[in-house]
Design a protein that fits this description.
six-stranded mixed sheet; 410 residues; 14 helices; Rossmann fold; 21% strand; globular; seven-stranded mixed sheet
Length: 410
């Protein structure tokens, strides 16, 4: 396989999770009785540009389908994060009624609703039908398509050139990362700004976050690799912020290389230096990650077996993609985790891909009163614990998280 950015040969292994179905391919009651497609889930490292990436096995159309079930608005903490982002961008870049904001991967309008409410003209680009329709129901203009250089040029030529583009948690989701990044250089006005948020590879490795690996994530990103990819496709990074979202993310600010006038902040060099000091551009940084993943898997399975032998009831919470990665790698099935609760109606009454664990609504928790609740989206642990405080107060439920280390809360 060749690197999807620089086309160098890929030889350095990073993570092998065996085979798994796409993590967001939730199954209906009819589909769960039929065959299921599984793909190898292996990650490799490019020793030329240091882009970590999945092996190519599934195209984007097979992963981001019309019934794609991830809706951003079901996380209250993510909504608050997005609201604060909009306020910050409007103030920093002086956006007003004469500006244009474009969000790529606008999902269900979770972010653009705040732009629209502030009176700033905006539109979104979103390829999946269900989420696009949810955004339109909020009054948001959506271009239903995959984004790339050609679409960026078309939008700019049609009067939709952007003062600000935002792309949250999508840069990792694109198979042709060069074409995708080139689209932002094409759609930006001469002094426009693009921001990108993505989980930070440095945090992924330091904190054993192997469950953020799944087929929909084609790339695993450091500023070291991103700066190179941007530079090759007409963008220059001029600022970076470290965020707590998704287990530790970067927010990267970029501008057109040919016309942008924002000075490069010290934060860019500071982050590059931190990554270099950690060894992100050295083979040794990548060689032990497989061992970390296997430790997390073994610790979780041992606990679930122990609780089953003791006759304890265990429920899962949050039918998240990262949870599916963990459960499938660990071989957890309904005998060890009878069901997973999720507040998203689009997931309820379906089954997790691979494990075939049923997804139910929250009423099931109150009925069963399980002694233990496994929080699968560990990055939302604080939010989930607040939502489920009644379980601890009413029947003494204890919460489990497996990443980065197994923790059973009192």
């Amino acid at each position: 396989m060749k690197c999807r950015h620089c086309r160098a040969d890929l030889r350095l292994p990073f993570l092998d999770l065996g085979h798994a179905p796409p993590s967001n391919a939730y199954l209906s009651p009819d589909a769960v009785r039929g065959p299921e497609v599984w793909f190898p889930l292996r990650l490799l490292v490019c020793e030329s540009c240091w882009l970590v990436q999945t092996e190519d096995h599934a195209g984007r159309e097979a992963l981001f389908t019309d019934d794609y079930a991830y809706f951003s608005s079901y996380s209250s903490s993510w909504l608050e994060h997005s609201r604060r982002y909009v306020e910050s961008m409007i103030a920093r870049f002086k956006l007003d009624t004469t500006s244009m904001v474009c969000e790529v991967a606008a999902n269900d309008g979770y972010l653009l609703q705040y732009v629209r409410k502030a009176g700033v003209p905006c539109f979104g680009v979103e390829p999946t039908h269900g989420t696009a329709q949810a955004a339109r129901a909020r009054g948001i203009d959506i271009v239903q398509s995959f984004f790339g250089t050609e679409l960026g040029r078309e939008l700019a030529a049609s009067g939709r050139a952007a003062d600000l583009t935002t792309a949250n948690n999508v840069l990792a989701h694109v198979p042709d990362i060069n074409d995708f990044v080139g689209g932002f250089a094409a759609i930006l006005k001469p002094q426009g700004v693009s921001t990108f948020e993505f989980p930070h590879l440095l945090r992924m490795v330091r904190e054993s976050q192997f469950d953020t690996a799944y087929h929909e994530h084609y790339s695993y990103l450091s500023l070291t690799s991103v700066a190179r990819i941007f530079a090759a496709n007409g963008l220059t990074v001029f600022d970076v912020e470290h965020l707590g979202t998704h287990g530790g993310s970067l927010r990267v600010y970029a501008q057109r290389s040919d016309t942008g006038g924002h000075p490069v902040t010290a934060a860019v060099e500071d982050t590059l230096s931190e990554e270099h000091a950690a060894g992100i551009d050295d083979v040794a940084f990548y060689v032990d990650f497989q061992t970390q993943a296997e430790r997390v898997k073994n610790d979780l399975v041992s606990l679930l077996l122990e609780l089953r032998r003791a006759g304890k009831r265990v429920a899962g919470y949050g039918a998240a993609a990262k949870g599916n990665t963990l459960l499938n790698f660990a071989g957890v099935r309904p005998d060890l985790l009878p069901y997973v609760v999720d507040r998203n109606p689009a997931k309820q009454d379906k089954f997790l891909p691979g494990s075939h664990i049923p997804i139910v609504n929250e009423d099931r928790l109150r009925q069963d009163k399980p002694e233990y609740i496994l929080i699968l989206p560990w990055n939302l642990k604080t939010e989930v614990r607040e939502q489920l405080a009644y379980a601890q107060q009413e029947w003494g439920a204890r919460f489990i998280t497996a990443v980065p280390n197994l923790v059973v809360d009192a």
